[in-house]
Amino acid sequence: MLWNRPYHRLILNGLLASFLATSAIPSIVFAQSSTRPVTRPVESDTQQMKMDRAETQQVPGASGDKDSQPDGLVPSGGVELYRRMGAALPPAPAEKPYNGPVDEAYGAYQRGLFVTALDKALTRAGEGDAAAQTLVAEMMTKGQGVKRDAKTAAFWYQKGAAGGDPAAMFQYAMLLMAGRDMPRDKKQADDYMRKAAEAGNSSAQFNWAQILVSDNPGERGLRLALPYYEKAAVQGVADAQYAVAQLYVALKDLPAAKKAEARSWLERAAKAGFDTAQLDMGVWLVNGVGGNQDYDKGFEWMRVAALRGNVVAQNKLSHLYIDALGTRPNPVEAAKWYVLSRRAGLQDAALEDFYLGINEETQKKAIDAANKFRRGAILVAPQPGQSLQ
């Protein structure tokens, strides 16, 4: 049974980050080149930025003018809908007949009939149906059709996990790992996480890979984890796609075919909204990692990550504007992005020299633009030439 809920992420392990930092991946030509941040990825349900923060969001692959909206990141169905108004659409394909068992409890759940779903699921759960036990646990966790009851939900997750349901095994492993509503038990948590991963649960595959990296320091752990990262990546887990891209470049003795796919996996993670992948996509394109250099697309991806709030991307975007890489030189934009990254605590002596070297009018425009980007936050803008803190 598949659940329509965000999977629990384990933050990309420091061991993975440290290994990649010392690997043969070329460093970016900008300042702060040794920084390899692992920032919180943007969730799929995050609200889009308002227009007063940015005029457009540019993504490589968009057709036409650079200011056009890209496919895959910002919905642009309006134009296509307008073009197709009045046009006859082809008939929908006939549905294939289904003769398998009907899950009435889950069907009611999907239609939002939670009381009915819970009633039907509880009957089957009491008879030992693992999928029904997992559905009951899910509804009790969310308070759907019943008052929220975390402890009873944990009981049903345990039953579903023992019955072999992959979703229950994953959720129960997370509960055991956190020690929430039950004693913490790493050994049992690892066992269920591994079983869920081997049963095909994509979230478990990613998290089991993380556990392998954590428990097996160095390159050995990364090689053990790679097959699980790959499986999760194929199923669309952006964090796993990012990890696969990094490991394909960093690990030695991998088949050439895999190394050739590194940039493709990174791009998939970037298009999924993972801001660190968007940052690295910009870095790779500018430096020619995993393929040819492309300053224009590198700039576009760096700008996307900066608009998403990635501080390192904001810093590097400032350098791109100064050096006119993929864009025309723009001192106001360069100073704006420096102001934003500096306020977030990212030091950069070269950008500080640049900022202090521009005239007061340009500094004021940059500060005004940075304040506007912050969407009207109450900020006391410093006088030109003063500290940005």
Your description of this structure?
The protein is 57% helix and 0% strand. α5 runs antiparallel to α6 and α16 (311-323) runs antiparallel to α17 (331-343). With 389 residues, the protein is an all-alpha fold. The termini are far apart.
Task: Offer a concise description of the structure.
The chain is mainly alpha-helical and 389 residues long. The protein has helices at residues 14-21, 77-84, 104-110, 114-126, 130-142, 150-162, 166-178, 186-198, 202-215, 219-234, 238-250, 256-260, 262-271, 275-287, 295-307, 311-323, 331-343, 349-357, 360-373.
Mean model confidence by pLDDT: 79
Strand content: under 5%
Low-pLDDT parts are: 1-11, 24-85, 376-389
**How many helical stretches?**
19
Structural class: mainly alpha
Distance between the termini: 51 Å
Give the SSE order as H and E letters: HHHHHHHHHHHHHHHHHHH
Helix content: 55-70%
Provide the gyration radius in Å.
25 Å
Shape: elongated
How many strands appear in the DSSP assignment? 0
Helix/strand layout:
Elements: H1 14-21, H2 77-84, H3 104-110, H4 114-126, H5 130-142, H6 150-162, H7 166-178, H8 186-198, H9 202-215, H10 219-234, H11 238-250, H12 256-260, H13 262-271, H14 275-287, H15 295-307, H16 311-323, H17 331-343, H18 349-357, H19 360-373
Which descriptors apply to this entry?
389 residues, mainly alpha, disordered C terminus
